[in-house]
Amino acid sequence: MARSSQVQAASSASGSRGDRRARKPEEHPYLRFTLITLTLVLLAFAAFEAAIVLPPAIAHPGVTLGMDFTIYMDRARSWLAGDGFYLPWQLTGPYVVGTTGTPPALYPPVLLYLLVPFTVLPAVLWWAIPLGIIAVSLYRLRPAAWTWPVLAAVLCYPRAWIVLVYGNPSLWVFAALAAGLVWTWPLAFLPMKAPLAPFALLGVRQRVFWAGVGTFVLLALPFGSMWPDYVIAMANARNGYGLEYLVGELPIAVALMVAGIGRSTRNA
């Protein structure tokens, strides 16, 4: 009887050691507590930035809430009126992005599929829909605890707030990236934002991705005559903001990709 008890105790101890060895690093209680604490600190800092730093920035002359949304709504209305999506001077020679004057259109013509409905839809949906897509995608991904500080840190990144506050179309591209990490095919729409296009390669090994590519091509065909204008407008554009304008949104995309990697690690 005593021997049986000893065998059971040894077996239990061995099983306990096996459970500890199988436990993922982020599941260790102390490390998990550290990750949660760091995430909360970063979120608090992001809330401070939103409450204290952003209002004066928005109050700056020439800056308005939803500024980029308004710019692209004007370009959509111009296209509907028959006056074109790209400004005439974008097609006649080099120009510097960020100088005074009417802001140019810097996205491919397929963006009109998004813009035209918002000439009648409530403006708030321009933010609500992509943010909802990102939220649902993150819920489906359920990224591991080690990714939480990365996701929180991106909310402390000023460019993330610029995209959000200005209503930049990049918000929809980030929604496509987040959704693509779950369902793959939305990755085919990342070329809407040229610097983020390489992230589309994440889906090239999946058949459903190529279905998304086919859909993108079909949507692009009706704008056939506008694609040369887009190429000329982009070739004529000169960066007036510096390197930050070219790579400024990459950290946001990387943070979302980390969430995707965290999903794979968590489910492994």
Characterization of the model:
The structure is a single chain. The longest helix has 30 residues, at 29-58. It contains twelve helices and two strands. Residues 18-22 have low confidence and may be disordered. It has helices at residues 2-22, 29-58, 67-80, 112-115, 124-141, 148-154, 158-166, 170-183, 207-220, 227-236, 243-247, 250-267, and strands at residues 95-97, 237-239. It has 268 residues and is mostly helical.
> What distance separates the N and C termini?
41 Å
- Per the principal axes of the C-alpha atoms, what is the gross shape? globular
Side by side, the strands of the main sheet go 1-2
What class would the helix/strand composition place it in?
mainly alpha
The counted number of beta strands is 2
Overall pLDDT level: 86
From the structure provided, what is the oligomeric state, counting identical versus distinct chains? single chain
Q: In the residues, how many domains can be counted?
A: 1
- SSE order: HHHEHHHHHHHEHH
Summarize the biggest pleated sheet: 2 strands, parallel
Using only CA atoms, what is the Rg?
A: 24 Å
